[in-house]
Amino acid sequence: MRPILFLIPLMLTTNLFGQDLSTHRWENRIVLIISNSQESKVFQDQVLEFKTATKGIAERKIVVYHVVPNQYRFVDYQKDNTTNEWIGSSLLFQKYGDKKSDFNVVLIGLDGSVKLQQNNALTTTKLFTIIDGMPMRKSELKNRKN
Fold first, then answer.
1. What count of other Cβ atoms lies within 10 Å of the Cβ of residue 21?
2. Element (H or E) spanning 139, and its range?
3. If we measure between CA atoms, which residue out of 115, 110, 23, 120 comes closest to residue 62?
4. CA-CA distance, 136 to 111, in Å (whole number)?
5. 95 in helix, strand or coil?
6. Which of 11, 105, 109, 145 has the fewest CB neighbours in a 10 Å radius?
């Protein structure tokens, strides 16, 4: 009985402090901005790049996570650019961070698969071009016209 009691608190802790990105599947595209430091110039520049294109980000159903080694925060440009407080967890950083680089950006599609991963800042022009070329996005645009 003791091993089961030990696992229950561990499972609850993981669920409370680790972000499960599958909650966005088929609802949102996800961009992870990952850096070894919040103070990194490229990290700050990437955050600013996205802040200047909130309409296009919201239109494409993109949610953004800022991820650093031991914490993350969620930004929802569809809801008044709401930036949540930092949450302590290293799971996103461990899963998606690039061990060979201090910075990377990851785009995850509606289906939950990684569509792009790069080690330099991502312009919103490139991001929108990639997304607008995806079959699901083309279908969204076609349905909107009808």
1. 18
2. helix 135-145
3. 110
4. 9
5. helix
6. 145
Separation of alpha carbons 67 and 21, rounded Å: 13
Residues 6+ apart with CB under 8 A from 136: 109, 110, 111
Q: Sign of the C-alpha dihedral, residues 126, 31, 23, 97?
A: positive
Q: pLDDT tens digits, residue range 88-103?
A: 999 999 999 999 999 9
Task: Please state the φ and ψ torsions of residue 108, each to the nearest 5 degrees.
Answer: -115, 125
The answer to whether residues 48 and 64 touch, using CB atoms and an 8 Å cutoff, is: no
Residue 120 in contact with residue 42, Cβ under 8 Å? yes
Please tell me the pTM assigned to this model. Answer: 0.84
77 sits in the region (left: phi over 0; alpha: psi -120 to 50; else beta) called alpha
Closest listed residue to residue 25, CA positions, set 95, 82, 137, 108 = 108
Q: What is the pLDDT of residues 97-141, one digit of tens each?
A: 999 999 999 999 999 999 999 999 999 999 999 999 999 999 988
What SS3 state is found at 104? strand
Cα(95)–Cα(70) distance, integer angstroms: 12
Residue 112 and residue 130: Cα distance in Å, rounded?
A: 16
